[in-house]
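Researcher: Last one for today. Full complex below.
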Amino acid sequence: MFDGRMAQKAAENLKKLREEKPLVHNITNFVVMNYTANALLACGASPVMAHAQEEVEDMVSFAGALVLNIGTLTPYWIESMLKAGKRANELKTPVILDPVGSGATKLRTESAKRLIDEIEISVVRGNASEVLSLAHQDSRTKGVDSIHSVDDAADAAVILANELNTTLAITGAVDLITDGNLIYRVSNGHELMGYVTGTGCTATVIIGAFLAIDNNPVEATTTALAYFGFAGEKAATHTDVPGSFQTALLDALYTIDNTQMEEGAKIQIQ
Amino acid sequence: MFDGRMAQKAAENLKKLREEKPLVHNITNFVVMNYTANALLACGASPVMAHAQEEVEDMVSFAGALVLNIGTLTPYWIESMLKAGKRANELKTPVILDPVGSGATKLRTESAKRLIDEIEISVVRGNASEVLSLAHQDSRTKGVDSIHSVDDAADAAVILANELNTTLAITGAVDLITDGNLIYRVSNGHELMGYVTGTGCTATVIIGAFLAIDNNPVEATTTALAYFGFAGEKAATHTDVPGSFQTALLDALYTIDNTQMEEGAKIQIQ
Amino acid sequence: MFDGRMAQKAAENLKKLREEKPLVHNITNFVVMNYTANALLACGASPVMAHAQEEVEDMVSFAGALVLNIGTLTPYWIESMLKAGKRANELKTPVILDPVGSGATKLRTESAKRLIDEIEISVVRGNASEVLSLAHQDSRTKGVDSIHSVDDAADAAVILANELNTTLAITGAVDLITDGNLIYRVSNGHELMGYVTGTGCTATVIIGAFLAIDNNPVEATTTALAYFGFAGEKAATHTDVPGSFQTALLDALYTIDNTQMEEGAKIQIQ
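Model: Here's the assembly. Have a good evening.
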């Protein structure tokens, strides 16, 4: 069912973001640092990248949200994420985790799980295999190991969101967002986004920016993904090749106005 | 007062840079490495990024200038900067410091101060709060803590340039450059530069390139900032959105010719 | 002599690459991570960047090729490259080395040599001074120290390829590829590629992608360089300035089709 209220909220959140210009603290991977910083600026937010263990607790205290992304993790960086995340929790600053490659290597899976165990995380965003790799063995037997359809993934995500007590965003052709109770689906987006490195990571930082101005995690996440996906659609009206698309996507993040956002959001509530 | 001689010198420095193609050694942050390397190439200079403690002294010996930027600092990187900076001093190679975020965290402020204490630095470039955070307590009481206007900032910068025995560049809508004696102001630039990450860091590397071919720090800095700001103005004639602007700015650095530079420079001497 | 069979093979390899979409594991430098990841996506391959010693052996086991690039090396990263490279050797996964800056500093030269000594490397790609710096003293006396012409470089490369038992690609205005027996030359390319940072590193990752689908190293390398150089030529038909060229080069990697590739390849066998 199309959710008109959420389309409206997407526009309101975008407006609020551009007014409040929250600082988003990123401890992220080397591949996407430049692009995600530019995406945050294009949205109207303000990025900072800082990972030294000596300063992450100081830095996060200025931020409206903390983004943790394990894309080029080492144990040092995970420790930095833990320090920053714990401080963020004390300050009630929302934390979002992008468990890049969780499920692929033991280091990634264990690091992602450790972050979730030791930090209160508002939102986890990843693709289906990354997100579902975070399940403990018992929930895996209930859901994760037996995914044969999108509906199975939704069932598994609901179970897992309850187990981890967080909001999960599984992004793909259609994005699935659930806090274990509500289930939203966002069908904005464009296939060229798969030809630009770090579009997943960029979705994550935009969710981070929305979390900084909307304290409802499932709504912040859903509206952020509608905005980002809609920017992809707008970019694809300008070009059909990936180098130019990477640039056009930043341009679209900057130019989408509130009316376009409300009209363009494709959000369904289950 | 408009300074026609400096406009002429901006054009001459640009010509010299393109002829001599100096190597600029950067120990800088992860976010801007790609963009600043491309900016140096677009100017006609040659970039190298190297930070291993085992090689920075070797690498800086080939360079015409050394750029130190603490944007994603850790203690290891600061040690590398100290090694490279000391070797640069022995070789009389100019060093420029970009104290990114100094004043925001203790690690950044202390690291920036340590670099200034232990290395002879030709130029420091940052925004007002970064640059003025470098003041010792005694000069702070004289100037830094009581900034209520642009003129106050200028007074504080003159005091601080004398205290630190260096040239300071405080960049913003109007850039202020002082060696503690002369004061230049550059009003080139465009507001879209604030929507591209690392434009401040890019200003710094261009100053680095100019220092490699002009041994007068205050003039090298002033002319470099006029060139970079003018490139921003040129880029903004091609686009009004930030993704495209990021690209157009590199294009403009490459295409500005000497005549355009001399006519476009907006440099005032106080 | 123009080699029509290799032009055909360039087209076939490109087709195969887009069908098989191999994963390319990169342990590379900070400057080019984003751009080379995007280049791999634009080609049709799939990039992963991972350098933690705890996971590189796991990660490389999923990959069709391993790219090692020492552009911003530290001893830690070299150890990671050794671990990944040895595991790749066990798995018969091809390894390509980009010895960025070898010959410039002792750390780089020694690290590159150590990688070649301890890992079986299918292809080394660099400029002439980087590649020829890898010679041992005895071969240096025979060839490397007496290069006065392109033909001398070719002679030195043949000697060195035999000594190192690998395929060498010396890229420049004309690329020279030899396995110590056959010698190919590729004259595709455009001078604007010299104004974009990391085009050499990008050539390397594209060779990596071709190695993943063609188990003949000298042919994979030659066809990859023809493809990349041809993409540079195509990009230069769209723009003559470097920022835009950087984008157009990704676009061209994506749009070149098999017919264009076969017609555009400028490959000669000696």
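The first strand of chain B starts at residue 23 and ends at 27. Confidence is low (pLDDT under 50) at residues 140-146 of chain B.
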